[in-house]
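Appendix B. One record, verbatim.
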Amino acid sequence: MRLTRHNGRAGKFGTYNPKHNDRQFNVEHSEHIDPTRTKFNIYFDCYTGYRGKGFPDRDPESIISFEEIERMYYAENYGDFLDGQNRRNEAHGHANRNRTVEDLLVNKTTCPEETVYQIGTIDEHVSEDVLFNIVTDFLAEFTRRFGSHVHILDFALHCDEGTPHIQERHVFDALNQYGELCPQQEKALEELGFELPHPDKPKSKYNRRKNVFDAACREMLFDITERYGLHLDREPSYGGRAYLEKQDYILMKQKEKLAVQEKQIEQKESELEELSIRIDDVETLIDEVAETAYGKAVETVTERVQEETHNADFELIRDYEKEIMRSNSLTDKGMSFAHQILSGLKKKFRGMTAAITEKLKGILKDPAVKAEQLKPIREKTKASVLDKLHRADAELKARRSDQPEGKKRNRGMEL
């Protein structure tokens, strides 16, 4: 038998909806579900624990859907991040970028990842109990090793479809630069100590820590299956009909034909996704650079004004001092008195200059004045940088549109 552990976040109709997993819909209307066997399903969530076959009955009114469980978890754990990011957006004049918990849950970079576990095919597979025990043992070890940055939200054992399988959802998170906990997969895996498969090459869809993490999880899962006396093939079997059933062989050949095309499409999707992130990052960076540059400019201008004012004032006083020193009409007492007067003038000018420069600084830092002065700085910088990025974005999309549309991906095949 073959082991399947397949990960995904989104499909043809967007990010995966947990309603399918906990059967929050009318199963009578689904062709691939046997309603008479739904009662044998088992469900788990991180707030209320287990329910279903073999567990105490619950009042239907007390059952919380997986969808609500995930919304609660995100609000509780990532609410501070959303509030902080939204405040920063508003401070930079980008309130249109503000997001909600719902936005995080439907964005494919921040939504939960879903994993399908299955051993065997519709014709030959392990029992539901064995599958449940293997996967729950695996998830316990998974939590022990990675639970500081990867959190299991919910899962369901489905006994009412063709082959018993478990669909489990989890989220990766780590602290950002502001000390806020937020969903971010690669940073979470970096914190857990996972390295890139090829550290000497740029990070990409095919060179990321997630690949190493998935390989470690797969190895851990195989080790656990062996404890149950199951010795499954650890490597994909792509060469002999003797090892595959007829249907598996047909599926394998179809998969081989689509492999090159699938890889090209995924690469373009990855490039587009990274480019979109870069565009957002550049806009934020431009705002921050403009803010910093303006602040430095204000300091430089006021310091220069103060210096020039001092120079002009003291030059005038020095001229008077020279005239007095050259004069023979003043007595020593008169000369001393003149020096006192000029020293007092110097102090007076210093105070006036400081007051003027502080007033000037206050005017330049006034929010209305600052916003007006920052606008041309931002626009000139953005016009150059974003034009290049958007042109590259359009080129990638054009290249992607030239690719023939691939068939719907099979979420049930990995090994």
